[in-house]
Structure formats: C-alpha cells, structure tokens
Amino acid sequence: MTVAQPPTLTDVVAVIEDRYPPAWAEDWDRVGLVLGEPEAGVRKILCVVDCVPETVDEAVAVGADLIVSHHPLLLRGVSSVAPTTYKGRIVHRLIRAGIGLYVAHTNADVANPGVSDALAARFGLVDVRPLRPAVGAAAGGGRGHGRIGRLPQSTTLAEFTGLAARVLPPTVWGVRVAGTPGRKITTVAVSGGAGDSFLADAVAAGVDVYLTADLRHHPASEFVAEGGPALLDAAHWATERPWLDDLAAHLGGTLGVEAVVSDLDTDPWTLHATSTSEEQSR
C-alpha cells in the first residue's frame, strides 16, 4: 500500500499566499515565511494570533510542523536572534523543535474573506461590505479594512453589548462601551485589531455602532462628543481570534492536513477590577 506523502512547506505557503497574497500587506508589515525548510513535510498546522512562548509550547505539545501566526514575530528589525533575547529564544525553540513559522497579517486583514469577515459573522451581519475599501494591489473584490453590515433585527446598545460579550472569545479585558444604553442599533461596523484609524470611516458610513480594539482616550472622546456612532472596545486578541477558524478550515480542506486552532488567550491583560469609591465599598 502506498502511503500518501504530506504536502511540503512550499505547498502550504502556496495555498496561504493564493488566499492572502503578500502584495496585499501594508508597506510597513512583515508577512510570509519566517522559519522552516521548504521541502519539509507538513502534517499538522497550529493557527495562532500571536507567536509567543505559550503558543510555541502548544505547537510542540500537539505535534505541529508549522505555526501560522496573524501577528509578525519580527515586525521591527533586529540585529540578533541570540537565545539571550526574547524573540531569539522563540526562534531557537522553533528550530530545535523542527517547527516552521508563517505570518499572514494585514494581507489577511484586507482579504475577502478575511479577519473582519470572521468578526462580522460572529454577529450575524448581512449585506457586508468593506469599512475602508482597499487600494493598490488589493483593490477590488470586496477587499478592504473592516466591515460594515446590518443586524438581522434591530436592538439596543445595551443588548448589543451583551451579544458581543457572548459571541467574542472571553478575555479579562471584556468589552468597554461608549454610548447611551438605549440607543437603537441596526447598522454595525467592525474591525479586527487596532481600529481607531478607521473612526472617520465609521462616521462617514453613518453606522450606529463601531466595534474594534485598542481605542485611545482622546480620539474616542472626540468621536463620541461629535455625535459619532456608539463604540465598543474589545480585547485585540478577541477580535482577531475568530479568523483562525476560517484559516484552519481552508488549510485543512485544501491541503488535507490537520489544522488546529489555538484558543490560548494571548491578550496581555490578565486581571480586571471595577473601580469603586470608599463610600460605595462600605
């Protein structure tokens, strides 16, 4: 009996780059193959948001041959990957374990389907379109940053916040909200990851609420003061984790390999306490 050979790393890269071409990435981004022998066989892939020591341990534990990470490990230039450095230790651990590393970041953000499509699907949004349509190499085809869509049934901001808390992966950060609880919500904008650079796009689109991550104090305050949509600020990891399911399904279905999704919460915030005054606590 002939045993089918697994796809090579080169084969896997070709499938990823067909769906998320590196040319679609922002100029500042660093995507593509980081580590791995091109002709090495790939039987199991671990899909993660962050390549950190904990997800590398997970890859070793599940017997993965390749990590596909959303966030780049080496986004900024380094002069050394010595094992005495944080990133160097990760690189050395991966090499010793024979695990490759591939990154799909802003090219996956703008893809259709991409990161924000998976986020929009968690809320059941319909009539979905880009929040900021892509330009350059990625232009056309419904591609772009973020997504705008319509809820199947209108709700209130308070109810929508509860929905967000239920459908997003749980984190200590949870969901913060700016807006009147009883505000009617029908049209929704979402953007996986840091999204305050798209606040103006959400205003221009006239949506009722904008959900993203990493909103800053001053832009959010000015945005709300000027009558913009309500804001939901979720954990960065939680807004991008849904995409891993789509990625794993595509890789597994196309290549016939086992693609595993990491549910390890790599959000850096590990504790949350609601502020109370001394008077309230008495």
Automatic annotation (TrEMBL):
Keywords: Metal-binding
InterPro entries for the chain: DUF34/NIF3 (IPR002678), DUF34/NIF3_sf (IPR036069)
Keyword Metal-binding: yes
Gene3D superfamilies per UniProt: NIF3 (NGG1p interacting factor 3)-like
Keyword Metal-binding appears in the UniProt entry: yes
NCBIfam families recorded: YbgI_SA1388 (TIGR00486)
Subunit structure comment from the entry: Homohexamer.
PANTHER family named among the record's database cross-references: GTP CYCLOHYDROLASE 1 TYPE 2 HOMOLOG (PTHR13799:SF14), NGG1 INTERACTING FACTOR 3 (PTHR13799)
Family: Belongs to the GTP cyclohydrolase I type 2/NIF3 family.
The protein's name: GTP cyclohydrolase 1 type 2 homolog
Source organism of this protein record: Planosporangium thailandense
